[in-house]
Every structure is written in C-alpha cells, then in structure tokens.
Amino acid sequence: MAFPALRPLNRFAAPGLLLLASLALYGGGLLPGRAFFYRDVLHYYWPTQATRFALGGLPHWNPFHQGGLPFLADIHAGVFYPPNLLFGVFSFPTAYALLLVLHHFLGQLGLFVFLRRKGLEELPALTGTLALGLTGYMAGLGNFGPLVSGWTWTPWLLVVLQSQFLPLRRLAVLSLLIAAQLVSGDPQSGLYSALVAATYVAWFPGRKERLVALAGAGALGLLLAGVQVFPTLELLAESTRGGPGVGYLASWNLHPVRMFELVFPYPFGEYLGVPQFWAWFMVKGPGSIPFALSIYLGVTVLVLAVLGARKDRLTGFALSLCALGLLLALGERSPVSFLLEQPPFRFFRYPEKYVVLVVLGCAVLAASGARALVTGPSRRRLMALGVAAGLMAVALLFTGAATETARELFASLLQAASTRAEPSGPLENAARSVGTALLFTALMLGLAVLALRKPGSRAVAVGALALVAGDLLWTARKTVWLGPASLYQEPALAARLRELAGSPPTRLFRMDRALKASAPPSRDLEGLVHLREWEQGTLKSNLSGVFGLEEVTSYSAVDLRRWTGLMGVLARRPQKVAELYAGCLLLTSPQAAQAMGPGEQVLLTEPSLGLAVTKLSECPQRLRTVTRTTAVASLEEALARLGSGNVDTRQEALVEEGTSSTYGPAKVGSVELGPRSARARVTASAGGTFLVFATTAYPGWTAAVDGNEVPVRIVNGALMGLEVPEGSHQVELSFTDPGFHSGLQATLAGVLVLVLLVLVSRRGQDARTQEPAPA
C-alpha cells in the first residue's frame, strides 16, 4: 500500500531550522557578556590564537610556552585554516562562539543533504540531522571548538562520495574536504572521515570507483595540506607521541557501565548539579570528569532507530558505524584495542572520541525510523518497544519503593567503588533519569500509535521532530556551560609581572603543586567560574603568553619528548628547572615562599589569591657561557646526571655529541631576543667559550658566528648551545620550521594537480554535453 508523500517544506525552512538548532546549542556564547570557558577554551585555544596574532606573519616558533615550542607545526593551532582568521577580527569569546555556530550548522546541513539524496523526505531527514547535531556528545564539544570544525566536513564527504560528479571532479572536491580537515585544528577528524567513508564504500555499489576516488583524494588532500602536515610530522617525531610508548591511550576510555548513558540522561548524576555525579571509578584521565561530558544519544532517537532498522544497505552502513565506534571508544577494554597502538590511531588520544561514529550511525537510523513512523511502523517492533518501556516502569517503581536499608546498602557499595567523591542520592538520580527516558519513550510510542491510524500524517512527522529536539535539548542544556566574558580580561598580576620581567625578559615558572592548595572548590557552575577566575588571576597553564609573558611550564597538546623528560627528572626540584631555563620569577604560594632558600627573594604577595612571586637572586641569562662541558652519549645519560643533583648547571653543560672541555672567562652583551631568533656579542678569552641558549632544543634552529654557520649542540638534555672561538664575535641563532619548505612545495604541487583535475574534468563535462543525442 502506498502512502501519500509529505508536503514539501519551504526551501528555507530546513536550513533555518538547522541554524536555530545550532543557535540553541551554542548561541549562548554570542550573547553580550557570556563566553565559553571550560577545559581547553580558556587555557589553550585562547592563548594559542592570542599568540598567533601577537607573533604576526607566519609564526614558526612559540617563545611563550615551555621554554619555546614549534608553533607552525602545532596542528591544533589551525594556522592555515581560513575561518580562524575570525580570531583576528572579533574578540576571542565572540569569534570562538561564532565559529562553533557556523561549523555546527554546516555540519548539520551536510548530513541533511546526504539523507535527502538517499531518498528520505525533508522532515525525516531533519529528524535524523537533529539526532546528530543536538546529541549529548556534540553538546560537550562546545569545549573543543576545533573538533567541531573538523567534524563539520565529514557529512559533506559522504555527500560528495555518493554524488553523480564526474570521477575527476569528485576526486578534486573530496581532496579539498580532506585538506580542510587536516588543517582545521583537529586532524583526527580526517581519520573519522576515512572510517566513515570506508564503511560507506563497503556497503554501497560502485566500490571500485569510490575506493579509487578516496585513495586519490587522500593522497591529494595530504599534498594540499602539506604546508601543515610536513611540519606536524616533524613535531610528532620529536614529541612524546612519536616514542615507543602509547600510555596516553589508557586515558578516557569509555567504561562499559557508562553505556547506560546512551539510553538514559545522566544516570550517574550531573557533574555540576544535584545529585552530584558519583561514579568516579569510571573516569580515568587527565581530568576529573570524562572527555565526553555526555554520550546520551536520546531515547527518542533510539526508539526511531529500532523502528527504522531494515534489511537494506543504509541500515547496514549505520549499524556498522555504531559497532565500529563502540569498539574503538572502549579503548583498552575493547577486543580491537591493538588497533589503537598502530598508526594512525596511536597519534590520537582519548578513545572516548570515537563515540562520534556511534552518534552518526544512530542519526542515520533515526532518519529511517522517522520515515517508518510516518508511513506506518512495524507492530511487532512497537510491541518490543512497549515491553522495554514496561521494564523502565518496573525499574522506576523499584527505585521508588526501595527501603531505607536497601538505599544505605546501595550507597555503601557505590561509595566503596568510588575513589573521588561520596555518592549523593544515586537511587533518586537513577529514578529521575529512568523517569525522563520513560516519559519520552511513551510520547514517541503514542505518536507511533497515531501513525498506525493515520499513515502519512504530517502531524506525526512534525511531532517526531519536536520530540527528538526536546529530548536532546533537555540534556544538552546541562552540558553547555557558559561563564562571564570578564574571564578574558587581563588580570592585574600580568602588568606587574611584565615590569618585573625586565628587558631582555626573564621567564616565569608557575609552581602548580604549591598553588593548587589555594584553588577554590568547583562542585557547581558558580564554583567552576570562581575557580577559572582564580586560575586566570594566577596565570595558570598558558595564560602568561596571552599577555606577552614567557613561561617555562605550561600545557601543550603535543609535548616535546626532551622537555617532558627534563621535567620528569627534576619534578621535585622546580628551582633547578627555572635556573636551566632562565625562569627567574617563581609563582608560588605564600607558605612556599616563606620556606624559600637563600637564593630567592619575595617580590610581591596576593593573599586573596594565595599567591606569592619570588625571584632567584642570581638570575641566569637566556644566553650565558659556562666554564666547562661534559660529553654525554644520549638524552638518557644527560637526564640521569641531572637527576643525580651533582651537576652545577651554572658552570657546566652536558653536551650530546660534543667533547669535554674547560674554558676561561667570557662575557655576553648586547643581547637581543626575537620570537624566533637571538643575538648577542660574545667576548671569549684564549681557548674560546661555550654558549648556552636556554630554549628548548628542536631541529630547525641554526647558529652563526660572525655570519658563518656553526653546529648547534643539544645541552643539558633539552636546551641548546654552541662553541664560540676566542675574541669578540657576533652570535646569532634563528629558527625556521624544518618541515616548512618541503611542506610548501607539496602544497604547491597539490594545487597544480588540483587545477589540472578541474580543467580536465571541465573538458570532459563539455565533451559530454556536446555529444549528439541518440536517434
């Protein structure tokens, strides 16, 4: 039996609704005085973009963090991603929220177009699209803007993959999408696209043609993004991600018990609400809460997914994505965990991120389910869903009828499992979660009963769309956290520290362990804002760089292996690290300042922040000479000697691939420090001297004495140095990213290939249109 088609929407209705959904999710950040601020937004993305525009031009080196880091190679900075130019036009909070809204809207639009071209009507396609855009996982990505930017292009890749483009044109467009993902700031989105595209190719006809297009587009996309990819590969080789160990893969795996959250909204409590989250035993990562603040798919979405599953290719594609996403998200607990230890998976942290594949798969199923709901759902499946709803009702009655003794026993068991917090009303919270899911399930089943009586009803289609949106937004509102835009103002401490740093500037060393005791609690949103205000006032993480202050310690998404090793062996001797890096200003607590050694003096205190600033009385310079060098065979030997505490780094330098020598007195003057250069006049006595450059060692740094290039040696495990002959000499060090020129050549070659593809494709299109029609 054929059912009447749904009346088409106004041509602007669907895009308008999707834009409203994006604004409903992230638009709060565009309101005056409001801003996203949690996780990497305040501490990483803001400093990164502020540093980029402060350095000007094409920034190769970042002198503000960790004693110096490659900047161009930091793929998360998105230097070559055109939309990021908005950070140079608007204030950071406004640009960040604007990019979130625009990318989220474009990503939704891509999935909508894909579903429409798969033959789904507008309302079912919209329902499936909102099942992707408003899910709990996507709401949590408001704290990771580049991840939204990268994911945006994955649905469009599906659109192009299934299009009727000429083969060469399809290859060209696919390569542009892949290149956009690689430079977006989230290269892992390229891996998502590869997994999604491979799954699509496996399920649909035309495998050979599409596989060739994907392979060619992948190669061309890498070429086009070469100016970003080549420097990043150099950085990976020098970072902790390029070593033999992949220990960070143990962080933020999806705990199996947490899969209840796929169906029920916050069944274990809210992270910033009441009842408080209690299941801390499931969280293992660098933060106290999971990477994915919510993995709620929406019970209405899952009901539609059950109704929409069929024996067809689209269902097989969607279910395969769900299975693949869950297997990867489980991480260490997964039967395919060995894959995560292999390239390219090993380059990316936190397996929980692969939940995004589950979200996409369920969204496609929900679209099919919305169509099935309108045309007349399966009675057998409705009965199965009714049974599931009945089980929810039984569970709800059980939690409501549990005796006080049972509640206390349950709470004791949970408390024994928890190591970070005491449980607060776990049964009551479970009842609330199950009750919410039961309500939305009952409403969706009521729509299904109505659809059985009135097949093809537009009201049913609109009702399903509204229920999915309401279900998901109900949870998303607890996941999108906004704070005051005043968090992005300069704290009073910054101006005072710039005065104390002097010229040439000395670096800061923030003693996190000492300051942590002064941090305020953050068990609700107000407390979290207060904590961030304290962190901003004490310049936590990378915030010093925003205000032009250089720092020895800070957070980076990609840490250099040498810097990490040095910090590890000297973790209990922060003053030694500060001395090595010329970090003479120490940010610590007043209590720690009172116990300072004879070589430090207190410059200022801020009792309201629990902060004191001390200074090393004998502050080493960024460019300084030593009286002797000791040859070491490797990084490991250098770190072992430094860890022993028997090396006086003011007088001695441990030099890899160098020689052991002694030197007479020398002078360093006329020091000039640039963002990626250093100059000084060095005057050495007979026998010359050895000059130490207190900046983190990295390939690409070159040195010249009176214009003649000399070798740069690795010093003290993580720094650099060079020999200077006797007499007075002009010494200059400069940096150019070692992968930049080869990457630029690759990009230019990719552009040339792309132009040729477009020209050949256009000629083929013209030839096709000029062919005479058959008689």
Question: What's the structural blueprint in terms of helices and strands?
Answer:
Layout: H1 13-26, E1 34-36, H2 40-55, E2 61-62, E3 69-70, H3 92-117, H4 122-133, H5 136-140, H6 145-151, H7 153-161, H8 167-183, H9 188-203, H10 207-224, H11 226-238, H12 299-308, H13 313-329, H14 355-375, H15 379-401, H16 404-417, H17 426-453, H18 458-476, E4 482-484, H19 492-501, E5 508-510, H20 512-516, H21 525-537, H22 543-546, H23 561-569, H24 574-580, E6 585-588, H25 590-594, E7 600-606, E8 611-616, E9 623-626, E10 628-632, H26 635-644, E11 652-656, E12 661-662, E13 666-674, E14 677-684, E15 689-693, E16 701-705, E17 708-710, E18 713-715, E19 719-724, E20 727-735, H27 740-770
Parallel strand pairs: 5-6, 10-11
Antiparallel strand pairs: 1-4, 2-3, 6-8, 7-8, 9-15, 10-12, 13-14, 14-20, 15-19, 16-17, 16-20, 18-19
Q: Can you walk me through this structure?
A:
Keywords: Membrane, Transmembrane, Transmembrane helix. Pfam families: YfhO. This is Membrane protein YfhO. InterPro entries: Uncharacterised_YfhO. This protein folds into three domains: 466 residues, no CATH class; 126 residues, no CATH class; 113 residues, no CATH class. The chain starts with 12 loop residues before the first helix and ends in a 5-residue tail after the last helix. The protein has 775 residues and is α+β, with helices and mostly antiparallel strands. Helices cover 49% and strands 12% of the residues. Strand 16 and strand 17 form a beta hairpin. 50% of the residues are buried. The strands form six sheets. Strands 13-14-20-16-17 form a five-stranded antiparallel beta sheet, with no helix packed on it. Strands 5-6-8-7 form a four-stranded mixed beta sheet, with helices on both faces. The chain has 27 helices and 20 strands. It is globular. Helix 1 runs parallel beside helix 4.
